[in-house]
Amino acid sequence: FPALVTPFPHPVEQVIDVISGLVASFVAIVTVLWVVLANYDREQKRLQESERKFSKMFHSSPLPMALSTMKEGRYLDANHEFLKLLQRSREEVIGHTSLELNVWCDFAQRTAILKNHTDKETVRNVALQIRRPSGQSREILWSAEAMDVGGERCWLGSSLDITEQKRADDLLRQERELYLDLVNNQPAGIY
Questions:
Q1: Contact 73, 97 (CB under 8 A)
Q2: What gap in Å lies between CA 58 and CA 63, rounded to an integer?
Q3: Given its phi and psi angles, is residue 87 left (phi above 0), alpha (psi -120 to 50 degrees) or beta?
Q4: Cα–Cα distance between 168 and 116 in angstroms, integer?
């Protein structure tokens, strides 16, 4: 092997060889960095586009939707329909907990949700009662997806207000009971 290594006849050639090696290494490093940064920039743009699309869908949804922390029930974001359901402004809701806002007609319902659903990724159609600032209660079906936001477990929830449907069902049931009572208590029957 020593015969394959040719010594540099002059020290200047040795310096030139070292400098050309350093230049080649520098060019390689710059090229790699350029590729990494270009890919990073491309991924950042894709992520921003994805976030923009999600935000648009979230805020334009006809269903009341909110993003809240599991642990505290602190609202991180809410769409217009959710604010309308609660009859509250964005400033009143964002950054505050459902407990602070006195949203729960029965706080035990929140405790039960945490106990029964915290380890699940998806919750579907849980019947809940919520309270508006006026004291009026609304019945909702709540569904949610668990997700991590900034290292904290959160619910991305949507609600369906079923208050009017429940009232109509109750009226229909009462009318049916009244009709059956009338029919069953007629001495001569109805012809």
A1: yes
A2: 9
A3: left
A4: 30
CA 78/CA 86 separation, integer angstroms:
11
Q: Find where tokens 């990724």 sit.
A: 121
74 with 99: CB under 8 angstroms? no
For each of the chain's 191 residues, which pLDDT tens digit applies?
A: 455 555 656 777 777 778 888 888 888 888 888 888 888 888 889 989 999 999 999 999 999 999 999 999 999 999 999 999 999 999 999 999 999 999 999 989 998 888 888 788 899 999 999 999 999 999 999 999 999 999 999 999 999 999 999 989 888 988 888 888 877 777 765 55
- The pTM assigned to this predicted structure is 0.72
Record the tokens describing residue 76, joined without a space.
């991180």
**Backbone angles phi and psi of 99, in degrees to 5:** -70, -45
